[in-house]
Specification:
212 residues; mainly alpha
């Protein structure tokens, strides 16, 4: 009964971690994308499209960060939608800059890396496959003969970045599981003792649950 007073952090830590990673990665994309658009503009029309898309990401990210700072976790589907929007914006900018010849494709890598360390491997595989498929479709319509090998290498790199992120996520999850295991053993020791350091076990469990 007393163990039920202790919240299980494993149910919320992944969600909070995923939200923070998505927010941080999106700010990187916004700042880097804006600098790249202003540094090497491809024309007024293309520049307008880029700025509108990038500022749209920034406005949406303000909402996510505000919710995070207020300790209000965002729904998982909202985080999925935000990640889909990142991939879609990158793809649209690639299209606006000529497809395969655009260097903006490199922004797929940090976006996929953030997704791979924030979400489950099953979700990551879908994002990676969809991103590679979208970029492949865009590039196939615009690449020159002989560029197929380069396109394949870029798509393989996308999958590799996602795999590296998943591997890192597994290492971090194992580390958190080990820490939680030590914490549970400590709680069990408190539950089995009527008092610790002169304090009743109910008081110690209440303080533990409050600080978790």
């Amino acid at each position: 009964m007393l163990r039920d007073l202790i919240p299980d952090p494993s149910k919320t830590v992944d969600m909070d971690h995923g939200q923070l990673v998505v927010i941080a990665a999106r700010w990187v994309l916004v700042v880097a994308g804006l600098l790249l658009a202003l540094w090497d503009p491809a024309g007024i029309g293309v520049l307008r499209v880029q700025i509108v898309l990038i500022l749209g990401l920034a406005v949406a990210n303000f909402f996510l960060q505000a919710q995070f700072l207020k300790n209000r976790p965002v729904l998982r589907n909202v985080l999925y939608g935000a990640s889909v929007a990142d991939i879609a914006v990158i793809s649209l900018i690639v299209v606006a800059q000529g497809g395969f010849s655009s260097h903006v494709y490199v922004f797929y890598f940090p976006a996929l890396l953030a997704i791979s360390v924030a979400f489950s491997p099953a979700i990551v595989s879908r994002f990676a496959a969809c991103s590679a498929a979208a970029y492949g479709a865009i590039s196939m319509a615009t690449l020159d003969p002989g560029d197929e090998v380069t396109l394949a290498a870029r798509m393989i790199m996308m999958a590799g970045v996602a795999m590296c992120g998943v591997a890192f996520q597994n290492v971090q999850r194992d580390r958190r599981t080990a820490i939680d295991g030590v914490r549970v053993e400590t709680i069990d020791d408190v539950v089995d003792e009527p008092s610790v350091a002169g304090l009743p076990r109910e008081a110690i469990l209440f303080q533990t649950a409050k600080g978790a």
